[in-house]
TrEMBL record:
This is RING-type E3 ubiquitin transferase (cysteine targeting). Residues 234-275 form the RING-type domain. Pfam families: Pex2_Pex12. It is a multi-pass membrane protein. Keywords: Membrane, Metal-binding, Peroxisome, Protein transport, Transferase, Transmembrane, Transmembrane helix, Transport, Ubl conjugation pathway, Zinc, Zinc-finger. It is an enzyme of class 2 (transferase). The keyword Protein transport applies. GO terms for molecular function: ubiquitin protein ligase activity; zinc ion binding. PANTHER family: PEROXISOME BIOGENESIS FACTOR 2. InterPro entries: PEX2/10, Pex_N, Znf_RING, Znf_RING/FYVE/PHD, Znf_RING_CS. Belongs to the pex2/pex10/pex12 family. It is found in: Peroxisome membrane.
Amino acid sequence: MDEPKIPNGNLPLRVNQLDAEASDEFIHEIILEKLRDVLKYLQLSNIFTSYQLEVDAAIKFGLWWVVFRKQRSTLGQQLLDLEYTSVRPGAKTLSAITRVQSLLYLICNVVTPYLWARLRELQAIRSFSDSNPHLDKLITILQTTWQYVNLLNFVTFLYNGQFLHVYERICGMRSFHPKGKQLREVGFEFSNREIMWHGFTEFMTFLLPYINMRKVKTMFTFSSAKSSDGSKFCKECDSYPTNPTRVADCSHIYCYHCAASLVTTDGALECKACNVKITSLGNLERAQHLISLVDA
């Protein structure tokens, strides 16, 4: 028998159906992560390691009970203005999915995946495989067959845009736009901003190693009044010199670290007091007569 047809104006795009599924998975991961954080502070994080499948099934059941059971659509579908409609053979018009279809959705999307995952864990135990070789082989055949069925269903979905999942065919329901197809407008503001900042970050990462930050800092640093006393303070940092060093050509005082760093990084030390340039560490002399003065 023929199925009721959805008007062209209400047919959903394939990409909208895929986005709805991706949104559902993302929402599930968010809830799982928040629950994990809560249980971590209650020192119950071992629940996820021992009962991870049960926790996943409980979250899916909760979403079904709160959202799907009442509104006949998932959270991802609601974000894209989609919902399920019944396409049972023999029906003349579109109608809301029934309670039986909702329960079938729960069985196909929550109960069956949980039981199958538990069976796969049991199959992974060597003692089970050794004691039940025929059952182990049957499970492998069923899994392979199910993967081929999913692949065939997805190829069919890409061709006609109907029934993204096998359980939708089993339950006899399809996605549609109840208010008519909406224009799919994609905003690129966020993407453009991310691209711009990513390019700027790469440019600065490439440029900064070639900038002598000490020299830039020196250009925008003004000597304080205490620097007028050249016999006590370092001409670079304007503080009492550590390991006092005297420039041989002009007799001004620097910290050895300040003077050696400038010569090493800039290739030359230009005295701030007299503009004499020192290009070699050999022109620096230890100011022995200042050590007692600085210590005092």
